[in-house]
Every structure is written in C-alpha cells, then in structure tokens.
User: What shape does this take?
Amino acid sequence: MKQSILEACKVLYLDHVAVTTPDFKQTVVEYLNLPGASLVKGPGWNARQKVEYAFIRIVNGPMVEVLGAVEDSPINKHIEKGGGAYHFCYAVADIEESIRQAKNAGAKVIVEPIEDIAFDERKVAFLFSSSQGIFELVEAYPNNLLVEWKTSAEDASKMKSELGQPKGSEIKVEKDVRERLCSLFAKTFPLFRKELTGETEMNQLKGWDSLG
Assistant: This one.
C-alpha cells in the first residue's frame, strides 16, 4: 500500500485547525462562548503572515486558530469565498526532513519554512497534496506540556471588554510555560535543539559549559 502524505511527513500530532473570518472579534467570541473553551494564545497580530490570530482550545475537540485578514492578506481569497475551515496544521519533529519526504510522496511546497511569531518563532511551512489539499507543518516543541492558569479578574475583565465578551462569562487562559522555556533554550543552544526536553541538564549535553 502506498505511503500516505501524513505518514511520509512523520506527523506527531494534529496541532490545530485554522479557520478564516471577515469578522475576527465576533468569531473569537463565538468560539470562546462554547462550553469549556479556553483562550490559549492571542488575540495578536502576525506581521509576517499579515493576519490577526487567536488560538482557542475546544473541550473534547481540536485547537482552533482563528484568522482575520487585512487588505493585502494572503487569506483574503478564502474569506471572499465565505471563509470557514482553511487548513489542518500538523506538528513534526524535523520540518526540513518532513518536507523532503512529503515532496518525494508527491506534495508541493506552497510556502517555504519560515519562523513564525504566532508559534514562538518555531518554523512553519505550507504544502499541497491531492489527498490533503492545503496543509501546514509546524515544528513541535521538544516537550509538549501545557501548564494551565487563570487570568486575574482585572485581566479577564480587560479581555472581555476588548473582545466584546458578555459579562459574567469566564475566560480561562492556558500558559505553556514549559514550552516557552524549551523554545528559549532551543534558540540559545541551537546545536542541542533536537536533544532538549524539560528535564535536560547541563551535564547531559556535551559542549554545554555555561552556567547561565
């Protein structure tokens, strides 16, 4: 049996499902109003991709990335056709190798790998295949562990005001502290990037000799 594109890419997990919308704030509010939904990251502005973004975790469902456009945004054509579901994003350990294998399996690269602010400067790339359509690959964190915390009453009130969230509804925000620390370590020690985890110690990596 022929190997599938996702098998060729060595996908680790589904990172998120992206949706586009002509009314960014309203769409974010609608997702946050789902029972148990939580705001993971954003709302923010991605200057490199020219989109507004917000990541929302759905209970018993996938992470949803809401994308809003500006005048010259690459997602405008999709929004003009009605918006909605745009692409699936899959996490991989080695994005360059995954792209190489995907191309060998018949996929085409639409957007070459680029560090993305919405993913803490991890690289993302967009590809197309006849079976998957447009899909995104993102570098996985060395240790994919999320730490949850709730915003203060003041911060939550500010979010509700900015997003038009009805008073009395609760917004729970997740902070991926360990993921961010791993990302910072990966930038500081690029030679050890693939070896880093939340439990990595100095004496485990040959050549790491700085106390800081």
